[in-house]
Amino acid sequence: MQLKDLSISCARKYFPYSQLWNRELHIKMGRCPLKNYNEQLLHLIDVGRVDPTTIISHTMKLDEAPKAYEMFDKKDAIKVVLKP
C-alpha cells in the first residue's frame, strides 16, 4: 500500500502513528519534485481531469498573506489560494 499526497500538516493531525508503530510498518518520506510535474498537472487541471479545489482549505486576499502563513504555522490551513 502506498500513501501519496499526504501533507505534513494533515498527517500530524490525522495520521495514526501509534497504529503504524504497533504493526511495525515503515514510513518513507520525501519532497515532491514539483517542477517535474508542474506542466502535466496544470494541463490536467485545464482539461478538467483534476479538481484542485478538493485540497484548498482557504481563499484569501493577497494582502492577507501574512495571516495565511500564520495559519500554516498553527496547522489551521492545508492549501490557501491568494487572490489579488
For the record, give the distance between the C-alpha atoms at the N and C termini, rounded to a whole number: 41 Å
Spatially, the strands of the biggest sheet line up as 1-2
The total number of structural domains is 1
Low-confidence sequence ranges: none
Beta fraction of the residues? 5-15%
Q: Could you give the order of the helices and strands?
A: HHHEHE
Distinct helical segment count: 4
Helix percentage: 40-55%
Judging from the principal axes of the Cα atoms, what is the shape? extended
What is the CA-based Rg, rounded?
Answer: 16 Å
Short description:
The chain is 42% helix and 10% strand. It has 84 residues and is mainly α.
List keywords for this structure.
single chain; 84 residues; mainly alpha; two-stranded parallel sheet; 2 strands; 42% helix; extended
